[in-house]
Design a protein that fits this description.
Radius of gyration: 15 Å
Order of helices and strands: EHEHEEHEHEEE
CATH class: Alpha Beta
Bound molecules: NADP nicotinamide-adenine-dinucleotide phosphate
Largest sheet: 8 strands, mixed
CATH superfamily: Dihydrofolate Reductase, subunit A
Mean pLDDT: 97
Helix content: 10-25%
Shape: globular
Strand order of the largest sheet: 4-3-2-5-1-6-8-7
CATH architecture: 3-Layer(aba) Sandwich
Length: about 170
């Protein structure tokens, strides 16, 4: 199963100023890439905090929301709340016929997947901003050293650079 970590980062390595910030600080080009990649994969996985900043499932793809809160119940076909482990989620998706999934944050669930060595690609949009403080890609910080191979780098508009890496 291909698991693509898709993140927008400031030049100083921040993905948000704080946990409740909605990602509205990137440009059109980044949003367009997000929509394309997640729709192509057909499924995106996120933490409940990130889901709450969006507020609704995004259409035309499966939205999987990781939460330990059993009171959260979906009333929509393309929205699943789950307390499965990252590996459990991926097994379930494989059984449903998916071959790739896009992990769209936030920092907490990124750490869960990285800790279990489940990320196979990283697609990072470097946004020309500096936040000075805020959330890093992983929280809590992880003791990992995962080598990446650069597949491509491309300016996608608005001064944003899209970096595509494979793990290994
Ligand atoms: N720049 C970007 O590309 C980008 C992308 C995505 C998000 N973000 C930003 O990231 C921020 C949110 O990140 P975040 O790290 O605070 O939250 P998060 O990773 O989105 O969600 C964390 C939540 O997931 C739930 N959860 C489910 N399983 C868990 C487990 N095994 N261990 C721990 N928690 C588990 C917990 O809430 P429950 O109480 O529901 O269990 C936890 O509070 C937002 O500001 C968002 O804008 C940025």
């Amino acid at each position: 199963m291909d698991v693509i970590l898709l993140m927008a980062s400031t030049v100083d390595g921040k993905i948000a100023k704080n946990s409740s910030q909605f990602v509205d600080w990137t440009g059109k080009a980044d949003k367009k890439y997000f929509v394309k990649l997640t729709k192509e994969a057909g499924v995106m996985i996120m933490g409940s905090t990130t889901y709450d900043t969006i507020g609704k499932p995004l259409p035309d793809r499966l939205n999987i929301v990781m939460t330990r809160d059993k009171s959260r119940q979906s009333d929509q076909d393309n929205l699943i709340f789950t307390d499965l482990s990252p590996a459990g989620i991926l097994e379930d998706l494989e059984q449903k016929g998916y071959t790739r999934a896009v992990l769209v944050g936030g920092a907490t669930v990124n750490s869960l997947f990285a800790r279990d060595n489940l990320i196979t690609q990283v697609h990072l949009t470097l946004v020309p901003r500096l936040f000075g403080s805020g959330l890093s890609i992983f929280a809590p910080p992880l003791d990992i050293d995962i080598g990446l191979t650069l597949e491509s780098s491309q300016e996608i508009g608005d001064g944003h650079i899209l970096l595509i890496y494979h793990v290994g």
